[in-house]
Amino acid sequence: MDISDDDDDDDEDDESTTDDDSKQQKKLKRTVEHLTSSSQQKYTIVNADMIFYCFEILGNHLFNGKHHLGKHHSSSSSTNSQLIPSLLNPPAVPADPYPLFVTWLIGTDKQLRGCIGTFSPMNLGQGLREYAITSAINDSRFSPISRDEYPSLSCAVSVLTHFEPCSSYSDWTIGLHGIRIEFLNERGSKRSATYLPEVAHEQGWNHIQTVDSLLRKGGYKAPITSEMRKNIQVTRYRSEKLTLHYNDYIQSKTASSSSITATYSCTTKTTFITNRPK
Predict the structure, then answer these.
(1) In this structure, are residues 70 and 151 in contact, taking their beta carbons and an 8 Å threshold?
(2) Which end of the chain has the least Cβ crowding within 10 Å, N or C?
(3) Which residues are paired to 195 by β-bridges?
(4) Residue 261 falls within a domain, yes or no?
(5) % the chain with pLDDT above 90
(6) Which element (helix H / strand E) includes 18?
(7) How far apart are CA 169 and CA 228, in angstroms?
(8) 228 near 171, Cβ under 8 Å?
(9) Cα 96 from Cα 123, distance rounded (Å)
(10) CATH number where 64 lies
């Protein structure tokens, strides 16, 4: 956002600019209200603010606390993961404990860039703070997310619910349930692996293909037999998932900032010129 202080004697220009700015503020406000209301209508736990909070946390980590409204400033110092005070208490994030996953995607085709979470119930604010960064930099399948990639990201938060033991490896519904399997590998060590509910559907897998893929994901290298499948323990679960893009986050920040600066403008006659984020 660009802010310029104009002289009070240029009243006509001030009024025109303020009117244009007011229209822009209202448009941004409607956009954010739509995002928030859409998430509230469909979900009971996950909301847009949780996604925006993940962007805030990752941006603070990548840009040493200097990122703001899409203007990122590089620093020669090492990355500082310390949180600024305002990030310790996220707004509109339920305090209830849930298992959760944070997923980062990149580009218009939303290629996976990192996904890590936990099956242990965590306070959602704490969980989002931890896994927004962990999934971005510690997923062993990928290199850490860079500053340059940040504006191209989408973020998804999945809150896991309705955990139930399965009677067999196929006792779950593709597209509805995620599954977590536990098994013994060739050395007799206990291993586990999971796919979130959307994975099997997106890949076009049936139950056997999904379970076999999970076994390989969990490090099982021996031939997979029907007897092996019968011996695994399967837990099914559901999730609430919401995905938003970086631009949605920036619009929410700009709209929030505009509502503050508009009030300030009424008392100081300061003209605020807002550039719409691309």
Answers:
(1) yes
(2) C
(3) 179
(4) yes
(5) 62
(6) helix 11-42
(7) 10
(8) no
(9) 6
(10) 3.30.700.20
